[in-house]
Amino acid sequence: xxxxxxxxxxxxxxxxxxxxxxxxxxxxxxxxxxxxxxxxxxxxxxxxxxxxxxxxxxxxxxxxxxxxxxxxxxxxxxxxxxxxxxxxxxxxxxxxxxxxxxxxxxxxxxxxxxxxxxxxxxxxxxxxxxxxxxxxxxxxxxxxxxxxxxxxxxxxxxxxxxxxxxxxxxxxxxxxxxxxxxxxxxxxxxxxxxxxxxxxxxxxxxxxxxxxxxxxxxxxxxxxxxxxxxxxxxxxxxxxxxxxxxxxxxxxxxxxxxxxxxxxxxxxxxxxxxxxxxxxxxxxxxxxxxxxxxxxxxxxxxxxxxxxxxxxxxxxxxxxxxxxxxxxxxxxxxxxxxxxxxxxxxxxxxxxxxxxxxxxxxxxxxxxxxxxxxxxxxxxxxxxxxxxxxxxxxxxxxx
Length: 399
Hints:
Blueprint: H1 2-20, E1 28-33, E2 36-37, E3 53-57, E4 71-75, E5 81-82, E6 84-89, E7 92-97, E8 106-111, E9 126-131, E10 141-145, E11 165-166, E12 169-172, E13 180-185, E14 190-193, H2 196-199, E15 205-213, E16 222-227, E17 233-237, E18 242-249, E19 255-262, E20 273-276, H3 285-289, E21 294-301, E22 306-311, E23 314-320, E24 333-334, E25 346-348, E26 373-382, H4 388-398
Antiparallel strand pairs: 1-2, 1-3, 3-7, 4-5, 4-8, 6-7, 8-9, 10-26, 11-14, 12-13, 13-26, 14-25, 15-21, 15-26, 16-17, 16-25, 17-18, 18-19, 18-24, 20-23, 21-22, 22-23
């Protein structure tokens, strides 16, 4: 009996020794982006646009498994994978995005099963989400004006001369994150931006702008901005509708004008109108827009010949130029149509610049000619047609 007992004890010792030698599991201990915790109960919204992400494990990591197929950073709005540099020091994996991340956008970090410890123990897959600080703006703007107490172009070199900024003040914007906004008095305020003809000549196009119009001005009619009026493009709002009038190239040396027009009644009976949202259930156009901050986006995509209007992140209008008669059915993009009496600067706050005399109903010196009255902020111009997902994210992150 004593021999059997000794044998059993020896066996237990051997078994315990084997268990102590088993490889330690690869568990997650912490995930941070700079000093922001990504491993908490809720996804943070204040991560920097160029973060250093550190993932700490319970044991050392096999550097050969810390690859871009096992550690993936994805931006959620278009499911694109961000390129990263990955480094391993013992039990810490450092992930650095190659490019700055979009501001105001959500990202997902995926740690996949191929990741393993030094001892070959596989990792149980997890994901962690976060959003970057700020408001979202797609890359590639050809002009961007954020009016942080100045009217300079934040994307390019289209800066106005000091003499081209008339009676402009700067007020608090729609929220603390948006900073300042430009204030227009409805009679003389204007900002003239150089290279308006260049900004208005492109195949694909997007105009994005935040406005808070004063409906007491001109019975609700306001010329928000324009480059040559309909000889380039112009955005105007009235009490119950809004439109972007533009000139479209229809041949090597020909062009024609057309309006992307939103009336909010749901009427799709006009030629070319393929969708128009009925806004009456929400109180109608005026109740949504007048004396309130609103986000307007107009796009034109040359390949499909589709013009689109978005209001507050939602697609509210589409027009198919393929359904028009010639010459508009042949539209290949926007074109600035130089004409006598038409100025070529982009006017913020009016139909066209101060040199324009071609339209007697839109001469700058006529102070009752629907000059814009209200606030304006974050004017973006792109020579690309932004997709709906980006437009919605611009609104949601900026509202």
